[in-house]
Amino acid sequence: MSSALPTTQDTLPRPLNDAEASRLRADFPILGRSVNGTPLTYLDSGATSQKPTCVYEAEQHFYENFNAAVHRGAHSLAVEATDIFEQSRTDVARFIGAKDNEVIWTSNATEALNLLTYSFGNASAGLGGETARAFALGPGDEIVVTELEHHANLIPWQELALRTGATLKYIPVDEAGALRMDLAEQIVTPATRILAFTHVSNVLGTVIDVPALVALARSVGALTVLDGCQSVPHLPVNVKDLSVDFMAFSGHKMLGPTGIGGLYGRAALLDAMPPFLTGGSMITSVTMEKAEYLPSPMRFEAGTQRIAQAHGLATAVSYLSEVGMDRIAAWEELLGERMLTGLGSIPGVRVLGPGPGAARIGTAPFIIEGVHPHDVGQFLDSRGVAVRVGHHCAQPLHRALGVVSSTRASTYLYNTTSDIDALLNAVADVRGYFGVGK
Amino acid sequence: MSDLDQLYQQIILDHAKTRYGSGLREAPAGVTSGESVQHNPVCGDHIRLRIQLEGSTLKNVSWEGDGCSISMASASVLSEMAEGIDREEFLVILDEFRELMRSRGARPGDEEVLGDGAAFAGVSKFPARVKCAMLSWVAAEAALLAANV
Ligand SMILES: Cc1ncc(COP(=O)(O)O)c(C=O)c1O
């Protein structure tokens, strides 16, 4: 035993390494394809992740053996399909530290956030009876978001404010994109009813201080809504440890299929909220005049559900758990550092976001002086490097950073250091190609 | 030539730097003009383009905007070629340019009609970039409508 290796050896997660990541790649056939005559370097997992074969095989297996509508009918297939559907919910709930009945299936995080805001809107319109009063908003009430938000966690709140007469406020960022925590205390006031914020910025990859914001919301009795889109796929996330009231996430960003995502909510809150979508499968009894609703989660799942997709997502989280979320997070931190340092040392490249020291996932947003991001992305694509260009559905953040758009490279568990090097090599050639900076 | 080099022809890169027509010009008193703002929702880029007219003759096309080399070069080419031509003639060129952009690489650009605009033939192989190339042309079409001549 070397004394240079302190006792933290047991507690610090051991990151994946290139050899392990390369082995994982075999589970993702798409990563073996080439584009434009060169091997694909996929660095756009922030937009959507690739899927391992087990995920779509699970969907196929479901269709070949169990396909039936759930929670309806008494035949064997319907019973088995229901079991699979509910087991999937349990698996995904466990993955984020929630109880079984605290996860509502939605098609993605966008729908999860809309479900929440429309439910609050219904409560504000007087629906849902006595218990729903707690969610009713009106003039004088405040909703607080941050300037970092993806449009999916901004526009639904703008709309809710417009519908109810509540006021929408936000915690700004500084010129580097760090959240102005020093101002948060003045912005969150006793009139604040909801504090909605992202866990990880989809543009900058920075991890937000959730405990500080939750404490602030608590101190004024406001509900907390976390956008977990960029954290749940990349970091170990436990909603009970984080102590948030609600959290939205998307399956397609965490190895799952498209068309499935979820809303976590504390059970007591979900059972008190009025439904958003109404119709079949969410009622206890119906007359021609009115209906009584089931408790959560079914009260929020009107209509025939995404059964195969839920099963696919459950398969995805078991894949992630098997690899280990802490090991994935540690690996992506290494890849992210390599990316940020490498990009920062290329002449004419400016990395966006707070400097060293800020906690970040494997996400690197950057600007190449004199070359528009759209042109950067096109050039990188010709080298097989897939990145995101544009405003990444975060126009206000880009405005605060003083740019219209940016280029963003983002990693996942299957990326290797050679992917990062392929990116860096291609980026180094961009200005030369466009005849800039000579 | 690689697809990339066909997309970024030297003419295009040159126009993207020269930016003919860049800098919005006020129409003198009594001169008819029309203006339009167009956005590319993908990247947040935008262009504000103004056309001055003498009767049905395009007299001055000027614009301000921020965008990629394709959209800037396209605005530059348009401004240069529109100077002094008749409205109807401009609309014929616009149709030709639009057809070229829709061709998915199947058409060579007709230099007779399009001039430097023919260099955009390579853009049509990149459906994601057609919007960039069309931005100023759509703005010009709307500006002419707004001028209402
Ligand atoms: C932080 C964040 N929030 C919300 C979303 C919206 O996710 P979806 O489009 O899957 O609903 C995204 C996806 O880009 C995101 O990154």
Automatic annotation (TrEMBL), chain A:
Domain named Aminotransferase class V: residues: 41-423
Top-level taxon of origin: Bacteria
GO MF annotation, one: pyridoxal phosphate binding
EC numbers: 2.8.1.7
Cofactor(s) required, per the database record: pyridoxal 5'-phosphate
Pfam families linked: Aminotran_5 (PF00266)
GO biological process terms, semicolon-separated: cysteine metabolic process
Transferase is among the record's keywords: yes
EC class: transferase
Reactions listed under catalytic activity: (sulfur carrier)-H + L-cysteine = (sulfur carrier)-SH + L-alanine
InterPro entries named in the record: Aminotrans_V_dom, Aminotrans_V_PyrdxlP_BS, Cys_dSase_SufS, PyrdxlP-dep_Trfase, PyrdxlP-dep_Trfase_major, PyrdxlP-dep_Trfase_small
Keyword terms, alphabetized: Pyridoxal phosphate, Transferase
Function: Catalyzes the removal of elemental sulfur and selenium atoms from L-cysteine, L-cystine, L-selenocysteine, and L-selenocystine to produce L-alanine.
Family: Belongs to the class-V pyridoxal-phosphate-dependent aminotransferase family. Csd subfamily.
Protein name from the UniProt record: Cysteine desulfurase
Provenance organism: Paeniglutamicibacter gangotriensis Lz1y
Automatic annotation (TrEMBL), chain B:
Occurrences of domain NIF system FeS cluster assembly NifU N-terminal (ranges): 8-132
Pfam families in alphabetical order: NifU_N
UniProt cross-references to Gene3D superfamilies, sorted A to Z: 3.90.1010.10
Signal peptide: none
GO biological process: iron-sulfur cluster assembly
GO MF term (any one): iron ion binding
Full protein name: Nitrogen fixation protein NifU-like protein
The species this protein was found in: Paeniglutamicibacter gangotriensis Lz1y
Gene designation per UniProt: iscU
